[in-house]
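Progress note, sequence design subtask.
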């Protein structure tokens, strides 16, 4: 039986070129700044994002925490979209570790209204209130199905932040997916924020890590925070090398992933229009809602797994994520098996 893994783009394995790069990578002590491969990845990442410096870290959660700490948010509020990953899916580290207080704002598919962001900002004037220290964006927005924040929205929020004297941080785990959808280079997104990180272990396909970038003053604080959090690595060139390979031509890989996601979305919507809102599938994530057929997606997802289609269920939603290990045959199999499994389920009017 063929196994098609749609659970996440984190399941990707290094390519042959990446494995060769690992074998031949020059190494040093990264914690002392002596690993030439890590240094090259950081130089390349700074160039790609248009920032002064970059730092290679073990994970995106550490990148977010390091950024929040470097921005001086302890005892202050951080404005986030209410379903943001940093607020909902990183173990509460925003508060427990970084000492920040989240100020969630309801967005529309992950996009916050600049006027509402402005209204949520608190100054230092009232000593009874925790002041706002940071505005955090997420692009693409994971919970909303990989939706992308428009550049004009980011620009407007950046203007609000500048007028209030606040920095903007971007959780860009799938930053290259956002850039591919917008048909711009990553730097065009990053110009609207003060700090940004992107994952190398998702659609880019490298095995481990994330890269955080910002100006020199911020990065000095971020490096100190990362060291405190355990991010000081040694011969990390073995995991930086495949990331360098991935960054050679990132956009074409993501473009293909997006095409597969749209193909999957259309196939599922053809089964029943309530399953997927095809217009909302912008990048490589397809949220399939089974409300009309079952109150809980676990049973349907379990049946898919028994047929070799691995996906990620949550309440009445099944999430499919496309990546470079999948192809049109995988999508066709997923649609075919889903149609067969859903048939006995009774629609709820």
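Output:
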């Amino acid at each position: 039986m063929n196994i098609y893994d749609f659970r996440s783009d984190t399941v990707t394995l290094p390519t042959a070129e990446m494995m060769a790069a690992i074998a031949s990578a020059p190494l040093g002590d990264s914690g002392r700044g002596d690993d030439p491969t890590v240094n090259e990845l950081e130089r390349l990442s700074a160039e790609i994002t248009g920032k002064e410096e970059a730092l290679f870290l073990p994970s995106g959660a550490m990148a977010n925490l390091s950024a929040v700490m470097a921005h001086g948010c302890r005892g202050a509020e951080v404005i986030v979209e209410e379903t943001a990953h940093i607020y909902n899916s990183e173990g509460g580290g925003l508060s427990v570790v970084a000492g920040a207080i989240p100020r969630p704002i309801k967005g529309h598919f992950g996009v916050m209204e600049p006027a509402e962001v402005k209204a949520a900002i608190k100054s230092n004037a009232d000593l009874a209130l925790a002041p706002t220290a940071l505005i955090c964006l997420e692009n693409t927005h994971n919970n909303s199905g990989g939706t992308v924040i428009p550049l004009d929205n980011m620009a407007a929020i950046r203007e609000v932040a500048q007028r209030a004297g606040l920095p903007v941080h971007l959780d860009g785990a799938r930053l290259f997916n956002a850039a591919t959808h917008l048909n711009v280079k990553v730097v065009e997104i990053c110009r609207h924020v003060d700090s940004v990180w992107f994952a190398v272990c998702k659609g880019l396909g490298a095995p481990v890590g994330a890269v955080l970038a910002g100006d020199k003053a911020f990065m000095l604080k971020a490096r100190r925070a990362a060291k405190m959090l355990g991010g000081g690595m040694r011969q990390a060139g073995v995991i930086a090398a495949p990331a360098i390979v991935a960054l050679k031509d990132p956009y074409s890989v993501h473009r293909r992933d997006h095409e597969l996601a749209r193909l999957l979305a259309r196939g599922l919507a053809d089964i029943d229009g309530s399953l997927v809102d095809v217009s909302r599938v912008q990048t490589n994530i397809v949220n399939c809602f089974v409300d009309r057929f079952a109150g809980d997606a676990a049973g349907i997802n379990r049946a898919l797994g028994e047929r070799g289609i691995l996906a990620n269920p949550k309440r009445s939603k099944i999430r499919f994520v496309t990546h470079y290990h999948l192809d049109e045959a995988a999508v066709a199999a997923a649609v075919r098996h889903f149609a067969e499994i859903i048939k006995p389920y009774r629609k709820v009017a």
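The chain is about 40% helix and 15% strand. Work on this subtask will continue into the next period as scheduled.
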